[in-house]
From TrEMBL, chain A:
UniProt cross-references to Gene3D superfamilies, sorted A to Z: P-loop containing nucleotide triphosphate hydrolases (3.40.50.300)
Gene: gguA
The name this protein goes by in its record: Sugar ABC transporter ATP-binding protein
Pfam family for this entry, one: ABC_tran
Domain ABC transporter: 6-245, 265-511
Entry annotated with the keyword Cell membrane: yes
UniProtKB/TrEMBL annotation, chain B:
Membrane topology: Multi-pass membrane protein
Subcellular compartments: Cell membrane
Protein name in UniProt: Xylose transport system permease protein XylH
Coiled-coil stretches: none
Function: Part of the binding-protein-dependent transport system for D-xylose. Probably responsible for the translocation of the substrate across the membrane.
Biological source species: Demequina zhanjiangensis
PANTHER family the UniProt entry points to: ABC TRANSPORTER PERMEASE PROTEIN YPHD-RELATED-RELATED (PTHR32196), XYLOSE TRANSPORT SYSTEM PERMEASE PROTEIN XYLH (PTHR32196:SF32)
Keywords noted in UniProt: Cell inner membrane, Cell membrane, Membrane, Sugar transport, Transmembrane, Transmembrane helix, Transport
Gene assigned in the entry: gguB
Length: 524, 409
């Protein structure tokens, strides 16, 4: 047996009212890729924060042994010094700073007189980027790169710190398939060529199967088991059983009880220009429709304009409005503001919960009532008791894991935050529900719950639109799938004709008539 | 969707905390709230000693109320501005300007006192609308808009007053700031009326507290243990009645205290129970999320600034009435006192957090300290240093607390 680079013994960590970790054990061998699996709120991120000194020594119980020595980190700086580098669930790059500036942020290459030697820094940045398979100009602002590349820059940053244990918290959650693949291969390469040990948290079990040597499963703050992934028994189903404590027969609930009816919602010839570059067309003449009781998917690659399409329809919250009409039950409606959309029964649950979805410093209760507050108001006064009741009902119905709805939304784990966002929109009683990446960063069990909720919405006669970069998810939940490429709708397939290959072909279809004016609009 | 609440029987042990848990909650989750009360009490005790009891004489308590009422009024508006993620540097100048317009109308042009009052408030509202327009609809940061306002309205004050002070106001006007309600029910050496008003207020307070508690229990919400709840009510009642005793033995119930109490109640309700209030917290907490939840951000911002202008107008009346006239330099640095009161009272620098009652306590802390130091005879320069330090420590305590909460075991 190889030696253990890391041992964590009976780690216990409590927050006010929450026992996040209880006697957790973790052993990581030198030079392996060690995956950590568990449901939302199981305590994975917390464990990694304990390990990397985000929660300093003394605020948790238990013992950490790193490279044979007991580790007592009081800050991230200390753990980094020892060679433990964590890349958090949310990217921590500064968008306005250049690639090189970001890589060396907090770790600047100082030359003479303590001044930063930028030539040296840029040269080293190129070298580090090379190691992670990037070929970018080190003076490009990071904000101009796609998420996939930003994630690689995070790793380059970690490499610049002489890392021996790299921790990645859901690194591929926001990446498309090819970027994810690239990252996983990079992890393998770092392991094989540089002997870097990695710990990876992920909800994408296929990735874990592909990359991990060992998997530790955590449930409700406790270590359940550690699986050797070279054992053929250790497949995805095996992991799921450990995570949820029971067999999960299907990943997707059966689409029962859906009766597809009349057309409920239609967007016609929708065009939108870039907010700051007015002549750049981001959405080009897009049309789609969804019927009552139907679940429609919108598939597209990163940068195809899926979120831009949804947000521009939803109260014109993205870009400059070009042209186009929106119909509900055959009648034209206006969607010029979010309030107007809510009035018209349209809901949009955003892709990025932290930035766009939640008020993290307010409690769960207020977040749930935020969009449907008019339902709780009479004569301008909010019925706060009723509000609390509503929040508690959703906590139960959506299975939000928290001791109290008076907890701050920011204290919830990622998956539970998503459930709060969904609760918020369900409470508005919208009958057109647009969900942008509804299961990003969500565990298999909770995904199943969310698919069940989607089913329920459809069976109540509502129209659901799902935007997702995971094709299996669209195939498993939708009745019809539209494809979006370069800001245009390139086709639609009923579910029985849809398969990954056919969708992929439509998703990559270049425009034929005009030259590609709307080259992949990478966000704002 | 249809959901079913898990019905627990009201008043079951699950919703009523044990005494221990309540006390613990006061020191952990509610530390900031309880902390500021404790700090206030400590400061009062400290200065009572330092001033050998003068601080808490009826005369002095009355004085504090008269002298700081306008800062407290401003603090109410300011904390709302700060919760919304803005700041207002212009309030001192607006107080001066609205008071100046009022004084010119009443003192120079002989208009009735109430025209002056309405004019001052009207000027405040107009100024609020003006600044609200720039902040909300043009998108100029409030810091810049109100920095400009601070200069402009100070200039306007000088113009209006033609560089000279005006005084005195007619008695009716002055009475708003320095008048009292007393003698209505007579009394042997003390004012019975004052005591009765306070007693009614205390009774109303206790009544609403019980009702809220009952509602909370029936909605299965955690409430403090009964004995502690009673202790709290008794303590509040005792302090308030004792305060009324002090006032009754002095000159009775100050008019400004009535105005202030009404404003505090109204604005507490506005911030906690109205959609507008909720929206202010929402945009201060996460602007994009608020926008995407249907909050009409521009109108909320406009409302925030408009309201600040209104309250600055009210403060202008109170200050004019108290100083019995208008001076070109009036209200200088009031904005800083109001901002300090809000932050000492627990508002977050980044917006989204704060309370009206917190700002009031913060303002009272400032008032008590200033008054206490004046009584002891400390130099103005020393007073400023102490006040500055207190502000710094209060916010530092906040920051430390937040960090501790994140990493607490
Ligand atoms: N600062 C905090 N204060 C209070 N509770 C917290 C805090 N941070 C985390 N928690 C709680 O601790 C538990 C574990 O959270 P953690 O973020 O580690 O989950 P996770 O396994 O990473 O979940 P996910 O897969 O959703 O990211 C959750 O119940 C969460 O609500
Ligand atoms: Mg996590």
């Amino acid at each position: 047996m190889a030696e253990n680079i890391l041992e964590m013994h009976s780690i216990t960590k409590t927050f006010p009212g929450v026992k996040a970790l209880e006697d957790v054990e973790l052993r990581v061998e030198k030079g392996e890729i060690h995956a950590i699996c568990g449901e939302n709120g199981a305590g994975k991120s917390t464990l990694m924060k304990v390990l990397s000194g985000v929660y300093p020594y003394g605020t948790y119980d238990g013992k950490i042994v790193f490279q044979g020595k007991e580790a007592r980190y009081h800050s991230i700086k200390e753990s980094e010094h020892a060679g433990v580098v964590i890349i958090h669930q949310e990217l921590a790059l500064v968008p306005h700073l250049t690639v090189a500036e970001n890589i060396f942020l907090g770790n600047e290459r100082k030359g003479r007189f303590g001044l930063i030697d930028w030539n040296e820094a840029n040269t080293q940045a190129i070298e580090l980027m090379h190691q992670v398979g990037l070929d970018e100009n080190p003076t490009t602002p990071v904000g101009q790169l796609g998420v996939g590349k930003q994630q690689l820059i995070e790793i380059a940053k970690a490499l610049s710190k002489d890392v021996s244990l790299l921790i990645l918290d859901e690194p591929t959650a926001a990446l498309n398939d090819s970027d994810s693949q690239h990252l996983l291969d990079l992890m393998k390469r770092l392991r094989d060529e540089q002997g870097i040990t990695s710990i990876m948290i992920s909800h994408k079990l296929n990735e874990i199967e592909y990359v991990a040597d060992t998997t530790t499963i955590i449930r409700d703050g406790q270590t359940i088991e550690t699986l050797d992934m070279s054992d053929p028994e250790s497949n995805q189903d095996r992991i799921i059983r450990g995570m949820v404590g029971r067999e999960l027969e299907n990943r997707y609930p059966p689409k029962t009880g859906r009766h597809v009816g009349e057309e409920l919602f239609r967007v016609e010839n929708w065009s939108v220009n870039h907010p700051t570059q007015p002549d750049r067309i981001v959405i080009d003449n897009a049309s789609f429709d969804v019927k009552a009781g139907e679940v429609v998917g919108i598939a597209g690659l990163m940068g195809a304009g899926r979120t831009e399409l949804a947000m521009s329809v939803f109260g014109r919250t993205y870009g400059r409005h070009g042209s186009g009409k929106v119909y509900k039950r055959g009648k034209e409606i206006h969607t010029r503001s979010v309030a107007e959309c809510i009035q018209n029964g349209i809901a949009y649950a955003t892709e990025d919960r932290k930035r766009y979805g939640l008020n993290l410093i307010d409690d769960i209760r207020h977040n749930i009532s935020a969009a449907g507050i008019h339902k709780l108001t009479s004569n301008g006064w909010i019925n706060t008791n009723e509000e609390l009741k509503v929040a508690q009902e959703y906590r139960v119905a959506m299975n939000i894991k928290t001791p109290s709805v008076l907890q701050k939304a920011g204290n919830l784990s990622g998956g539970n935050q998503q459930k709060v966002v969904l609760s918020k929109w369900m409470y508005t009683d919208a009958d057109v529900v647009i969900l942008d990446e509804p299961t990003r960063g969500i565990d298999v069990g909770a995904k199943y719950e969310i698919y069940t909720i989607i089913n329920k919405l459809a069976s109540e006669g509502k129209a659901v639109v799902i935007i997702s970069s995971e094709l299996p998810e669209l195939l498993g939940t939708c009745d019809r799938i539209f494809t979006l490429a370069f800001g245009r709708i390139t086709g639609q397939l009923p579910i029985d004709e849809a398969n990954p290959e056919a969708l992929m072909k439509l998703m990559t279809q270049e425009r034929t008539a005009k030259p590609a004016a709307a080259s992949a609009g990478e966000g704002k | 969707m249809s959901t079913t609440a898990t019905a627990k029987k009201p008043g079951s042990d699950e919703s009523t905390e044990s005494i221990g848990a309540s006390i613990r909650a006061a020191f952990t989750t509610n530390l900031r709230q309880s902390g500021i009360f404790i700090a206030f009490i400590a400061i009062v005790i400290l200065f009572t000693f330092l001033t050998e009891g003068t601080l808490l004489t009826g005369q002095n308590v009355t004085n504090i109320i008269l002298q700081y009422s306008y800062i407290l009024v401003l603090a109410i508006g300011m904390v709302i501005v700060i919760i919304g993620g803005h700041i207002d540097l212009s309030v001192g100048s607006v107080v001066a300007f609205s008071g100046a317009v009022s004084a010119v109308l009443v003192i120079k042009n002989g208009m009735p006192w109430w025209v002056g009052v309405l004019a001052a408030i009207g000027v405040g509202i107009l100024v609020g609308a003006w600044q609200g327009f720039w902040v909300a609809f043009v998108g100029i940061p409030a810091f810049i808009t109100t920095l400009a306002g601070m200069l402009m309205f100070r200039g306007a004050t000088y113009l209006t007053l033609e560089n000279i002070s005006l005084s005195p106001f007619p008695a009716e006007y002055a009475r708003i700031g320095v008048g009292f309600q007393n003698g209505l029910l007579g009394g042997p050496g003390y004012d019975v009326f004052t005591l009765v008003v306070f007693a009614i207020a205390v009774a109303a307070y206790i009544f609403t507290q019980f009702r809220q508690r009952a509602a909370a229990v029936s909605y299965n919400q955690h409430v403090a243990a009964m004995p502690l709840f009673i202790v709290k009510l008794v303590a509040v009642a005792a302090v308030v009645m004792w305060l009324s005793w002090l006032l009754a033995n002095n000159r009775g119930l100050p008019n400004v205290l009535i105005i202030l109490t009404i404003l505090v109640i109204v604005y507490t309700l506005v911030t906690t129970r109205t959609v507008f209030g909720r929206n202010v917290y929402a945009i201060g907490g996460n602007l994009t999320a608020a926008t995407l939840s249907g909050v009409k951000v521009k109108w909320v911002n406009f409302g925030i600034m408009l309201n600040m202008g209104f309250l600055a107008g009210v403060a202008g009346v109170l200050f004019g009435a108290r100083s019995n006239g208008a001076q070109p330099g009036a209200g200088n640095m009031f904005e800083l006192d109001a901002i300090a009161a809000s932050f000492i009272g627990g508002a977050a620098v980044t917006g989204g957090v704060g309370k009206v009652t917190g700002a009031i306590i913060g303002g009272l802390i400032m008032a008590t300290m200033t008054n206490g130091m004046q009584l002891i005879g400390w130099d103005q320069s020393l007073q400023n240093i102490v006040k500055g330090l207190v502000l710094l420590l209060a916010v530092a305590f906040d920051v430390y607390n937040k960090r501790r909460a994140g990493a607490s075991r």
